[in-house]
Structures are given as C-alpha cells and as structure tokens.
C-alpha cells in the first residue's frame, strides 16, 4: 500500500460517523478514531490481548469471547480504575 492509499483509507468527510475509543489505564491513555465500530472493537480486543499475558500470564487467559470484559474486571480487582468507552461522534 502506498502512502497516498494509506492516507485515503483513513480520511473521513464532514458528517461521517467515527468511533472514538479511549482506553485510560495504569499504562497510560490511548485515544484512537475508527471509521467503523468493528474496527474500534478489534483495537480494544487487541489491546486487552496484548496486555493480558503481561499482567496475568497466558495460563489464566479467558476465551476470546470473554477477553475484553474479563480484562477490565480483573484490572479493576487489581486496583486499576482504568476505563474504556466508545463514542459515536
């Protein structure tokens, strides 16, 4: 993919709906925008997938369907008051 194609893939027009994903945790704040909810959900899943093994070890990893919810519940149990949310803008 060329640089021009990469830029065009990420452009939005006035009036387009975008999804803003904010992940605020002990690791910092990550703010990303996406054209679709599916892309935002995938980024959130990937974030939880990356940090799960670092935080809790691969042996305790839940099923893929429960990973995101389990990650935030477990982080809350560990005292991290981090939050994540998606807003339609």
Which secondary structure elements does this structure contain, and how are they paired or packed?
Blueprint: H1 3-10, E1 19-25, E2 28-34, H2 37-56, H3 67-77, E3 83-88
Antiparallel strand pairs: 1-2, 1-3
Helix pairs in contact: 2-3
Key features of this structure:
alpha+beta; 3 helices; elongated
Describe, in plain words, how this protein is organized in 3D.
The chain has helices at residues 3-10, 37-56, 67-77, and strands spanning 19-25, 28-34, 83-88. With 89 residues, it is α+β, with helices and mostly antiparallel strands. It has one domain. It has a 3-stranded antiparallel β-sheet with strand order 2-1-3. Strand 1 and strand 2 (28-34) form a beta hairpin.
Fraction of helical residues: 40-55%
Profile the largest sheet. 3 strands, antiparallel
Q: Please count the helical segments.
A: 3
| Distance between the first and last residues' Cα | 28 Å
Radius of gyration: 15 Å
Shape: elongated
Kindly report the average pLDDT value: 79
Going across the biggest sheet, name each strand in turn.
2-1-3
Brief overview:
Strand 1 (19-25) and strand 2 form a beta hairpin.
């Amino acid at each position: 993919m060329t640089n021009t194609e990469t830029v065009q893939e990420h452009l939005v027009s006035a009036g387009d709906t975008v999804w803003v994903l904010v992940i605020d945790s002990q690791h910092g704040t990550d703010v990303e925008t996406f054209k679709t909810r599916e892309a935002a959900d995938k980024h959130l899943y990937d974030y939880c997938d990356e940090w799960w093994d670092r935080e809790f070890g691969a042996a305790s990893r839940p099923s893929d369907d429960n990973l995101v919810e389990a990650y935030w519940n477990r982080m809350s149990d560990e005292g991290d008051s981090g939050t994540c949310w998606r807003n339609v803008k």
